Amino acid sequence: MDNLPANFLIRRIKIKDADDIGRIMAAITKSPAKIDFRQVIEEQVQSDKNASFVAEIDGRV
Q: 17-53 b/e with 16+ CB inside 10 Å = b?
């Protein structure tokens, strides 16, 4: 972990992250995401389990 930038942040996922998650998924699979990440994330945010996190660098997921 010594190579992480100073502005590296791990935080709980937020509903506003849905578009970024979709963009990342599309980049990985090289096709548009067919999942409604907003709905998936809303369910995660509303649950009492703190199991979903994102990493940010320079304010970007």
A: bbebbbeeeeeeeeeebeeebeeebeebeeeeeeebe
